[in-house]
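Bug #77: duplicate submission created two jobs. Keeping one. Sequence:
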Amino acid sequence: MFPFIRDGDILEITPVNGEEIRSGDVIFYRVKDKHMVAHRVIKKFTQNDKSVFVTKGDSNMRKGEKVYLEQILGRVKAIERSKRKIRINEGLNRLIFIFYVRISPFLTKVRRIGGRLLPHIQSLKIYRNLAKRLIRGEILYQWESSEDSGKCLLAKRNDEIIGRTTINNFSKTNPQYHGWWIFGMWVNWRYRELGVGSRLTEMLCEFAAKRGVSEVKLLVFKDNRPAVNLYRKWDFYQISIPQIDEKLREEAKKTRRQRIIMKKDLRIS
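Kept job's structure:
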């Protein structure tokens, strides 16, 4: 729900019936896997005498999802941020949010076009040279946790987090994903093509190798060519794990994006 709801915000939820819910409201509901979600209503209609609400996260570029009245636990009345309460469904705030809902399809198209053009621009040598000149100060890499079963690695510049990734051993918690996996790779768009993602990947592999781990695996979107090329640079290659492949195929039917499994064999010299 970024930018209107951010990490660390506290949500104030109030009971609500179907007739009271309007387009632009943020509702709190339960999804099929029993997780709770807060998304904005972008459309409301009746189907087979049942009220149906189409919801979507404010920064979500996918199509909205259908939510039925029995799933809804309440409406988000306000958010508390830094001891300040923001009422999101009243007055000027509500007008701002509704305006955002109206223009979000246009913004989605702009983000899609920008997302396709940006990697090509950042791959240019002139861009990389200019970016290195403009970015002053050293990029530091810092481990966030000290657990032997998993670690989060941060890339920072001037105390700002510009990159993040995690390595974890799921053998005990999720046997289906047996072994060590890298996940959550993220680099701020301003710092891409400057070697941040490469250094994060290298450090995670070194972390695993020092612990005698023989291989690490990860999931990546097949159409994310920069990420796939990065992992191939570090000798990752695509593999098949039948049970996981089946889940990824089902996921792709819903999201229209296919994720693949890649693996790197670690050899300690």
